[in-house]
């Protein structure tokens, strides 16, 4: 499924007020907006609310919507890299797994261990792009967009109809998606002076 909005291909304007045209920089702005722990927590809380009969009240609805818009942007960027057939450029040996530079940005706000992936296999940790292949094999981009909309509908409503969604699998795939994007951001994205690359961004006119 192609994004019909060619001027904002990763739909970042709606939550970040900046249009980003480089998929790697989508990862960068997403993890500047919130860290991987916050994304994992939001995904878990929304799915728990979707599974029950109570309206999600753990955080402001606008915050939840912005977090899910950021996740959608990451998903769209991941889909671009998946379609391009990208793979990991680093050769990581088993003895290097614990090196902080492989999973935590040096300017992170939390202790390094908080950034460790919780749900990735050894192969996925070595090559996070494998996660994108599994993610879009489980569902197409269009199906993922529909599932995420349904998750929010069920979480923000008092009634539930989540029986048509496999919430556990959705949780695992979405958290793996964000963990993989986080690892790629840490290992591959160039942050110039702590800012995004100017060439990758078109300011809204």
What average pLDDT do the residues reach? 85
SSE topology string: HEHHHHHHHE
Provide the β-strand percentage band: under 5%
Strand order of the largest sheet: 1-2
Low-confidence stretches: 198-205
- Helix percentage: 40-55%
Number of helices: 8
State the major sheet.
2 strands, antiparallel
Features:
205 residues, mainly alpha, two-stranded antiparallel sheet, 2 strands, 2% strand, globular, disordered C terminus
Summarize the helices and strands and which ones pair or pack.
Layout lengths: L12 H4 L2 E2 L2 H11 L2 H16 L9 H24 L37 H5 L2 H10 L2 H15 L11 H22 L12 E2 L3
Antiparallel strand pairs: 1-2
Helix pairs in contact: 2-4, 2-8, 3-4, 3-7, 3-8, 4-6, 4-7, 4-8, 6-8
Would you give an account of this structure?
Helices cover 52% and strands 2% of the residues. By secondary structure, it is an all-alpha fold. It has one domain. A two-stranded antiparallel sheet has the order 1-2. The two termini are 27 Å apart. The relative contact order is 0.21. The model is unreliable at 198-205 (pLDDT under 50).
